[in-house]
């Protein structure tokens, strides 16, 4: 018989099942820190509703704390771990509880805070942390009518800040001038979240009216609008970088927690909408543009889920989750430039415990055997350099972030000077008085100055010092003092028998010989020549080599400082006398 071999052949059509999806982030795991590396004894605020109440950057971590009156937050250097002192200096300028904190992406010493007192304040934190309580802000932005629950910096433009409040408005600020530039009044209920895309040209918001909006932040125009999640609890949204996708979290009509992926060009139907679980905590998404991973953490939960975003259906893939036994109240997020490249750390949270006074750093790590730099995990990321100024951005210019390489493995920190307050300028505050003085007519004095004639006061002083030549102070004055007895003399006596140190230099003598002092020179010229000679003598002195010489130098410097203080007091008195005379002259005669 003939055997039919067609049943033994492989099927012509391939099976569509591909098994487990391959991803380099499938094995990402969360790693907590030991107790000594946490921040303990931090009285975390109870009044921050759905906001993080925590912010971190490569220098500091800021946490909103509970205080008896008003609102405050503490700022701790990253290396100041362990048990925090109760009397740690705080930022205590708000009249109500602090609800949100955000570090400036271009200045690691500048932080913005929104509070229940309807204001946004900017603070400058010195390197090393606070030594005393900070009460005076750099700027006080007042424009909201009700509490400010959200603050957000522009990702590429310098000095541009967004704020959302319970008055249903989003305000756009120029922080350098402390000026309100735009008011976005498109919401009919409380704003839950706001997020900007990669270049800051689009703004995604969610509110209590269950709608997701895409807004042009410069003009305030509404571009797209649609129903986000049908549940009554808070929903949050985050822009997925420059992909044009928006990731949202919220609740269904049956109170199941959901996540959704939306196209910014059409919000009528989601690209994907899926159920997570049936818990009651509000979920907050955090997006990492470099890895395209979204981390989802819930208030009151003990776990963190993470998903990978793709450009093709189903657009969102579940990776894994970090599970812990302690529920969380909020999270602070470290910028990518502050992550540890050597440990393959792609993300770092600062978890605020819900039941304990602890802030714990949690690192998200991709397991790799090699210790070398991993370019696929760490592409060029956003640097702390602004791409454009606030004026350029408000004028209509749009630029992506300035990128930097993380291959060096060094944490990139910014070191910028203290910015001026918006009401200050670089000119002196007493400029008006100086201009009034300079506008007066100057009367020259042409009388010859007799250098050889000494006043009675100088004669008495020379007499007193000549009688005390053998005292210890006179010996120190000879060695370390800068006394110029005779400006016309070309010889200098800079040596002392007690120390045996030769202080006379040929360069000093040649320099002094070049100073020709005439009888017709003005007093200002003589004073300047005297100061030049004193500076030359100070530079020509040898540095002290023994302990006794160092003590003598210190004593002499103290005496010189006392003399300078007396001279300053005399000058101040003289200035006040001259100002009184000027004021009398300005009064018109009746």
UniProtKB/TrEMBL annotation:
<dbReference type="InterPro" id="IPR015943">
    <property type="entry name" value="WD40/YVTN_repeat-like_dom_sf"/>
</dbReference>
<dbReference type="Pfam" id="PF08953">
    <property type="entry name" value="DUF1899"/>
</dbReference>
<feature type="repeat" description="WD">
    <location>
        <begin position="141"/>
        <end position="183"/>
    </location>
</feature>
<dbReference type="InterPro" id="IPR036322">
    <property type="entry name" value="WD40_repeat_dom_sf"/>
</dbReference>
<keyword id="KW-0009">Actin-binding</keyword>
<comment type="similarity">
    <text>Belongs to the WD repeat coronin family.</text>
</comment>
<feature type="repeat" description="WD">
    <location>
        <begin position="184"/>
        <end position="225"/>
    </location>
</feature>
<feature type="domain" description="DUF1899">
    <location>
        <begin position="18"/>
        <end position="82"/>
    </location>
</feature>
<dbReference type="InterPro" id="IPR019775">
    <property type="entry name" value="WD40_repeat_CS"/>
</dbReference>
<dbReference type="GO" id="GO:0051015">
    <property type="term" value="F:actin filament binding"/>
</dbReference>
<keyword id="KW-0175">Coiled coil</keyword>
<dbReference type="InterPro" id="IPR001680">
    <property type="entry name" value="WD40_rpt"/>
</dbReference>
<dbReference type="Pfam" id="PF00400">
    <property type="entry name" value="WD40"/>
</dbReference>
<keyword id="KW-0853">WD repeat</keyword>
<dbReference type="Pfam" id="PF16300">
    <property type="entry name" value="WD40_4"/>
</dbReference>
<dbReference type="InterPro" id="IPR015505">
    <property type="entry name" value="Coronin"/>
</dbReference>
<keyword id="KW-0677">Repeat</keyword>
<feature type="repeat" description="WD">
    <location>
        <begin position="91"/>
        <end position="125"/>
    </location>
</feature>
<protein>
    <recommendedName>
        <fullName>Coronin</fullName>
    </recommendedName>
</protein>
<dbReference type="InterPro" id="IPR015048">
    <property type="entry name" value="DUF1899"/>
</dbReference>
């Amino acid at each position: 018989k003939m055997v039919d071999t067609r049943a033994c052949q492989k099927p012509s059509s391939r099976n569509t099942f591909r098994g487990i999806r391959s991803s380099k982030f499938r094995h990402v795991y969360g790693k907590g820190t030991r107790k000594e590396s946490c921040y303990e004894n931090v009285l975390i605020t109870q009044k921050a509703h759905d906001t993080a109440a925590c912010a971190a950057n490569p220098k500091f971590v800021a946490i909103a704390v509970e205080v008896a009156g008003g609102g405050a937050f503490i700022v701790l250097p990253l290396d100041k771990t362990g048990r925090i002192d109760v009397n740690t200096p705080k930022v205590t300028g708000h009249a109500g509880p602090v609800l949100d904190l955000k570090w400036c992406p271009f200045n690691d010493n500048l932080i913005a805070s929104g509070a229940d007192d309807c204001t946004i304040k900017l603070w400058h934190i010195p390197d090393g942390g606070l030594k005393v309580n900070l009460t005076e802000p750099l700027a006080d932005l007042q424009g909201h009518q009700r509490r400010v629950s959200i603050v957000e910096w522009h990702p590429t433009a310098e000095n541009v800040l967004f704020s959302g409040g319970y008055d249903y408005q989003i305000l756009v600020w120029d922080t350098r001038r402390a000026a309100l530039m735009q008011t976005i009044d498109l919401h009919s209920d409380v704003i839950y979240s706001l997020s900007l895309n990669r270049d800051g040209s689009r703004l995604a918001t969610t509110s209590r009216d269950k709608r997701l909006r895409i807004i042009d932040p410069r003009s305030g125009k509404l571009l797209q609008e649609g129903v986000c999640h049908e549940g009554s609890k808070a929903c949050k949204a985050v822009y997925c970088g420059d992909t044009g996708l928006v990731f949202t979290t919220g609740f269904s009509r049956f109170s199941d927690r959901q996540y959704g992926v939306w196209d910014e060009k059409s919000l009528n139907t989601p690209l994907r909408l899926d159920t997570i679980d049936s818990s009651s905590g509000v979920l907050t998404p955090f997006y990492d543009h470099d890895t395209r991973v979204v981390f989802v953490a819930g208030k009151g939960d003990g776990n963190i889920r993470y998903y990978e975003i793709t450009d093709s259906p189903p657009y969102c893939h579940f990776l894994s989750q970090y599970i812990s036994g302690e529920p969380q109240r909020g999270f602070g997020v470290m910028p990518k430039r502050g992550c540890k490249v050597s440990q393959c750390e792609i993300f770092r949270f600062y978890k605020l415990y819900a039941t304990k006074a602890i802030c714990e750093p949690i690192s998200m790590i991709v397991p790799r055997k090699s210790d070398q730099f991993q370019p696929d995990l760490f592409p060029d990321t956003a640097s702390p350099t602004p791409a454009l100024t606030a004026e350029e951005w408000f004028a209509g210019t749009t630029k992506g972030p300035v990128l930097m390489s993380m291959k060096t493995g060094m944490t990139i920190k910014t070191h910028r000077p203290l910015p001026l307050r918006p009401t200050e300028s670089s000119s002196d505050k007493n400029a008006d008085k100086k201009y009034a003085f300079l506008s007066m007519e100057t009367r020259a004095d042409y009388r010859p100055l007799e250098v050889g004639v000494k006043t009675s006061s100088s004669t008495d002083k020379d007499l007193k010092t000549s009688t005390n030549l053998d005292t210890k102070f006179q010996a120190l004055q000879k060695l370390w003092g800068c006394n110029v007895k005779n400006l016309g003399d070309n010889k200098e006596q800079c040596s002392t028998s007690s120390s045996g140190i030769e202080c006379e230099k040929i360069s000093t003598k040649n320099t002094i010989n070049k100073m020709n002092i005439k009888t017709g020179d003005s007093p200002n010229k003589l004073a300047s020549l005297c100061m030049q000679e004193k500076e030359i003598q100070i530079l020509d002195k040898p540095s002290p080599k023994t302990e006794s010489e160092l003590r003598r130098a210190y004593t002499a410097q103290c005496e010189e400082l006392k003399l300078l203080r007396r001279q300053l007091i005399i000058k101040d008195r003289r200035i006040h006398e001259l100002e009184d005379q000027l004021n009398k002259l300005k009064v018109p005669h009746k």
